[in-house]
Amino acid sequence: PMKRKFWIDTDTASDDAVALIMAFMNPDIEVVGLSIVAGNVPLDMGVQNALYTAELCAATAPIYVGAAKPLSRDLGTAQFVHGEDGMGDIGLPLSGRTPASGNAVDKLIEAIHLHADHIELVTLGPLTNIALALQQDPSIAKAVKRCVIMGAVADHIGNVTQVAEFNMWVDPEAVDIVLRSGMHLEFVGWDISRTEAVVTPQESAMIRSLGTERANFSVDIQRVLEKFCAEETHLNGFDLPDPIAMAYAIDTSVATEAHHWYLAAETGSALTRGMVVMDTLGVMHQEPNAIVVTRASHEKFMSMLVDALR
Ligand code: BDR
Ligand code: CA
After folding, report:
1. How far apart are CA 202 and CA 298, in angstroms?
2. Which of 29, 3, 48 has its CA nearest to residue 246?
3. What are the strands, taking DSSP E only, across 37-89?
4. Left (φ > 0), alpha (ψ -120 to 50) or beta: where does 283 sit?
5. Phi and psi for 198 in degrees, rounded to 5?
6. Rounded to an integer, what distance in angstroms lies between the CA atom of residue 200 and that of residue 298?
7. How many C-beta neighbours within 10 Å does residue 144 have?
8. How close is the Cα of 16 to the center of ligand 2, in Å?
9. How far apart, in Å, are the Cα atoms of 120 and each of 63, 258, 307?
10. For residue 69, how far is the Cα from the chain centroid?
11. What is the reported pLDDT for 172?
């Protein structure tokens, strides 16, 4: 049978890397390409982190360099969350690898047309590359089967400001473009990560006991994130937002509750920058433009994670 075709857009840092492993190791999925975007770390670091992770999985998908900064703002990174190198600062040799040639946005558009109606887009970072692709060729919106987005918070408890989730906060103008595009969108927000994708110290030990390089890597690179979780987000262990979004992209039964809602992004206010406002009651009488996952299964997520790392 034909494998499912995934395109992954990522600002590769410590949790992105684990999500990439889940996709690379899945026998039913062909990752046809990756586009790197600036976000967690400056662009060239994200590129190197993705190349390192692909090498670890012996994955051959082309990795293309995308946008170095948001559409109209300066880049704000999350190196205080994931480490200076984005990978926990554990001393990994994260340099010297060469990405595929060609512009990520052009390559994404090409891939969408080549695999029209089948390709599934998974975004793990700010939406800059996707917005640029939509601006260049609006017809891609309807050629994508679905776009699963790690972003936003359905409970409006933010991780970068009181109300905003990091990926949406970095480039709110890009979020606005994507939400208005007509693309089939499915959001897995940080609320899902905070409640269902926390890996406790006991679970980390269990993952290490799998004994593979991928398993140890996936825990070791969360070292700085774990400290951030203890001090800032008050979680017991570390949470894996991109991996639970990837798990849902692979198997929607990870979600135990989801809603079809009208979403809009805040681009004006400084206080609520990047907030994705969700019309949960339908009071705006607008056509819903996204599916939002509002509950998920920790057990299902952990079992998929273990499958990818064993
Ligand atoms: C998101 O922001 C980044 O820190 C993570 O990689 C994830 O994509 C969580 O808000
Ligand atoms: Ca990410």
Report:
1. 14
2. 29
3. 63-65
4. alpha
5. -85, 125
6. 12
7. 23
8. 5
9. 16, 19, 21
10. 17
11. 98
CA of 2 to the centre of ligand 1 (A): 31
| Residue numbers of the chain with a pLDDT score lower than 70 | none
Ligand 1 close to Cβ of residue 171 (< 6 A): no
User: Mutate which of 14, 124, 157 to test ligand 1's pocket (most atoms within 8 Å of Cβ)?
Assistant: 124
What is the Å distance from ligand 1's center to 9 Cα?
A: 12
- Gap between the Cα atoms of 103 and 64, Å rounded: 6
Name 10's bridge partners. Answer: 36
- Given the structure tokens 């917005």, which residue do they identify? 131
For residue 104, which of 11, 201, 5, 236 has the smallest C-alpha distance? 11
Q: Is the CB of 187 under 6 A from ligand 1?
A: no
The tokens for 135 are 């601006």
What is d(CA 102, CA 113) in angstroms, rounded to the nearest whole number? 16
For residue 270, count other CB atoms closer than 10 A to its CB.
7
Q: Which of 145, 163, 153, 157 is nearest to 188 (CA)?
A: 153
Strands (E), 45-118: 63-65
In the chain, beta strands by DSSP E: 4-10, 29-36, 63-65, 120-123, 146-150, 185-188, 198-199, 238-239, 255-265, 276-279, 290-296
Q: Which whole-number Å values give the CA distances from 264 to 150, 180, 227, 280, 286, in the listed order? A: 16, 8, 33, 12, 11
- Say how many Å lie between the CA of residue 142 and the centre of ligand 2: 25
Length of the chain: 310
What tokens were used for 261?
A: 């809602």
Q: What is the pLDDT of residue 1?
A: 79
